[in-house]
Amino acid sequence: MTFTKLMATAALTLGLATGAFAQDKTKVGFVFVGPVGDGGWTYEHNQGRLALEEEFGDKVETVYVESVAEGPDSERVMTQMALDGADLIFTTSFGYMDPTINVAAKFPNVKFEHATGYKRADNVSTYSARFYEGRAIQGHIAGAMTKSNIVGYIGSFPIPEVIRGINSAYIHAKKVNPDVQFKIIWAYTWFDPAKEADAAKVLIEQGADVILQHTDSTAPQAAAQKAGNVITFGQASDMGQYAPLPRVSSIIDNWAPYYIARTKAVMDGTWTSTDTWDGIGPGMVGIGEISDAVPAEVKAEALALKDKIASGEYHPFTGPLKKQDGSDWLAEGETADDGTLAGMNFYVEGIEGDIPQ
Amino acid sequence: MDLSVINPILLLAALMSAATPILLAATGELVVERAGVLNLGVEGMMIVGAIAGFIVAVNTGSPALGFIGAAAGGAVLSLLFVFLTQVALANQVASGLGLTLFGLGLSALMGQSYVGVKPPRMADLDLGPLSDIPVLGRILFSHDAMVYIGLLIVLGVWAGLKFTRAGLVLRAVGENHDAAHALGYKVKRIRTLAILFGGACAGMGGAYISLIRVPQWTEGMTAGVGWIALALVVFASWKPWRVLLGAYLFGGITQLQLNLQGAGVAIPVEYLAMSPYIVTIIVLVILSADKSRAPGSLGRIFHASH
Questions:
Q1: Is the per-residue pLDDT at B82 higher than 60?
Q2: What one-character DSSP code corresponds to residue B128?
Q3: Closest residue of chain A to B4, computed from CA coordinates
Q4: For the whole model, what pTM was predicted?
Q5: Membrane topology type, per the record (chain B) (predicted)?
Q6: Which of A198, A218, A241 sits opposite B18 (nearest CB)?
Q7: Which residue of A has its CA nearest to B9?
Q8: Which CATH number fits domain B3-287: 2.160.20, 1.10.3470, 1.10.10, 3.40.1170?
Q9: Which of A324, B49, B153, B267 is the right S-S partner for A347, CB 3.0 to 4.6 Å?
Q10: What are the sequence ranges of the domains in chain B?
Q11: Are A335 and A165 within 8 A, CB to CB?
């Protein structure tokens, strides 16, 4: 990791040297939390970066640094990118939020875009995808297909993004299967294949025959494949190499259109600080092909659900819904507002266990 | 909370598998330290072993050859440490740390084109009627060959250090290299062989993660196991059986905490997550209350003319 970082820094320095000869190029930097080959989250952001290069060709230059630890290390990497003449920097993990704000304050002429955060500034935009829309569809399939009625869920960190996903999946699993039960294991990492594999194995041993994950590697898929008779869903990326079983569908992040639009805005001088939160409708969230392992009627229901969410006809958080402690949250027909969703820190009624504080 | 969902038999079986990478790496390091050398490069040798074994296994289709490749990979990397500390007489702590950083970078470079590749699966060993024994069969006789090879290596190291002439010489070199040298033993040669053995063991430990436990290749996938192995050797007071106990304890509690989470136990998750480290340290500290101590020449540079 350190070696690649070293190489990337060297590449950045080279970029600065050649930048002097090509002032008209727009330079776009990316800070990645995992390796671009993780097969999940960072892989898809890198696909967006490649699409950006394809779209603008010679007019754009991209640089990236992978496996950047959240915290002070990321601040150093961002500062270096800004010093090396980046015009626009995408920081693609929740833990980069404060470092992004700090560095942005020092470089008012550089535009920053932070993924999945909630803090903005004049030169800092935020963007995220409504993954919970995809998780509603996965939850539907999970609830319909579980035979043991136990769904295992590997959580990364207890932040609103992850809790929202658990709630959304649970609500829709419960709708098709009132007996469904969620077992949640917190891994406290976005990316640690050995730990993710162990967590998946434990969930399977405890009776889960469906594994949902909110971590970035394909290790849980490999564990499910070995166990047999367990289904999984691709997370962030299609993870199609595990189809048709155990992976029966997936949520895919599609950042390319956003990256292209924002870079275009910088080129045109029309960039302003915004907060973007798009879902299935605009195509920021994709649903990977539902494999033949899913019964035809379940597949049809899932696709119908997808269409209703895409058209805005249905919101995954629609009342009546209660919180875990039994208190009322949403009345009949009421839908959750974005503020509540963005800061979600409670389970809905029916999920067992506590959220680590 | 529903503790009945935790199957103790499966838990114990998972423990043996989870402990194997730490066990292999720690046993190798134990031999190195008993020879009087402190090699902090375990993590680096493990990760290089993980990718070297992965590359060999994928290209030959044989996980067994993969483990041989992993042992070779770890040993070759440890040659760098041999050169630095035995030939160039460099500081062992700095060289070991350098070895870890170098190994992490080198493995990332070697693994560039192996991301997303699925390795051939190592079959569980067919032990025939043994694995059909109720309870014990599932716990003890349902694993892949490396779990048993790991145990055999611990047994071999224990017996070798305690009962053989070679073991006696190795310990003598570790306790007092000047005296061993005066008696005519080749201190550098013995230490070099010990370091190579440590590298090979660490390499196999790394390959266990990339070929069996996960199995796939991703950068940095050993995620600190090498450092745990290093600490284990110290807390086990340089005794093979305590290394085995420590590794099983650590692997067992790691598995148990995941199981407890799944069962919805009301202990805060953060405490569960740190429990393997704390419990292992406490138990081994209590055990090391006897008069065990580090090898006398541990970490000291040997030069015949001094």
A1: yes
A2: G
A3: A206
A4: 0.82
A5: Multi-pass membrane protein
A6: A198
A7: A205
A8: 1.10.3470
A9: A324
A10: 3-287
A11: no
